[in-house]
Structures are given as C-alpha cells and as structure tokens.
Amino acid sequence: MEFSVRIPFVELLGFELQKFEGGEAEIAFKPSDEHLNSFDVVHGGASMTLLDVVMAHAARSVEADMGCVTIEMKTSFMRAAKGPLLAKGRLLHRTATMAFTEGSIFDAAGKLCAHATGTFKFVARLPVGPGSTQAFNRISTD
Fold first, then answer.
1. Cα 32 versus chain centre, distance
2. Quick one: which H or E segment has residue 106?
3. Which residues of the chain have pLDDT under 70?
4. How many CB atoms lie within 10 A of CB 15?
5. Under 8 Å between Cβ of 72 and 119
6. Sheet holding 66-77: strands in order across?
7. How far is 110 from 130, CA to CA, in rounded Å?
8. Which pLDDT value is given to residue 56?
C-alpha cells in the first residue's frame, strides 16, 4: 500500500503502510543497523517517529483529504525493540479540527515494545509541484 503523501523522512526510514482505513493504521518497519542505538536495539527516536506516523495516519484515515500535524505526544517504552516491528494506530476521538489517538509498537513475537498517545490538528493540504501557486508544502505556524 502506498502512502498518500510523500514524506522524505518516512522514505528514509523505510516504513511500509499496511493498513489505512476506518480510524486505524498499521505500518511495518524493518530496522537496519543505521536505526539502532549503542545497545544494538532500535533507537527511541526511530520508535517515536514510527508511533507519530502511525497515529497521524489513523487520524487521517477518516479525513484522507486533510493533512494533520502533531500537537503533542506521550510515549512509554516497555521493552527494547528488536527486529521487524509492527506499529498499530487507532483514532480514539475526533472533533472538527483535532484527533486524539493511540499507537503501539509490537516486535515479531507480538510483544508490546512501546505505546503512545497523541493529539493531532487537521490542516488543509496545500498544492505543490509544477503549476502550483505554492513554492513549498508549508503551513502557517501562527
């Protein structure tokens, strides 16, 4: 399954979208050596990015024509993440402009490695590319 928007950092990490519907999203991640920390397990930053992206996609799965930006995120790490990982995101509640989500990362044995909650703001996507009036896909941060 293809991501509906190009996110260069997600491409760099090699995330694979597996589910994107009905308030749920799933993303597979096969970490390589570049994604590990000094303990030879997945770096917390890579795990938090995975959680951020899967929760945002869970939010967007009910409003696919909108973008969303992270407002806040809380992450708890339960155990070291090793090997192929699966992240699952779920939309808990939404308003006209906000989405409240949760996400979890599981290892190949199905053990919970990390859990997060996140709040996202829906934003209109801006046109990009040739013929666009926008030079960049930017949103106002004011």
1. 18
2. strand 98-106
3. 126-142
4. 23
5. yes
6. 16-21, 24-29, 85-94, 98-106, 112-124, 66-77
7. 44
8. 97
**Rounded distance between C-alpha atoms, residue 51 and residue 104, angstroms:** 7
Residue 73's nearest CA partner among 48, 109, 93 is: 48
Residues 79-105 have pLDDT tens digits of 999 999 999 999 999 999 999 999 999
Length of the chain equals 142
Phi, psi for 100 (deg, rounded to 5): -115, 125
For the question of whether the overall pTM of this predicted structure is more than 0.90, the answer is no
Residue 71 pairs in a beta bridge with none
d(CA 95, CA 90): 15
The distance from CA 106 to its chain's CA centroid, rounded to whole angstroms, is: 14
Coil, helix or strand at residue 109:
coil
| Cα 123 from Cα 89, distance rounded (Å) | 19
Q: In angstroms, rounded to a whole number, what is the distance separating the alpha carbons of residues 50 and 88?
A: 9
Longest dimension (CA), the chain: 49
CA-based Rg of the chain, rounded to a whole angstrom? 15
CB contact set of 98 (below 8 Å; sequence gap of 6+): 71, 119, 120, 121, 122
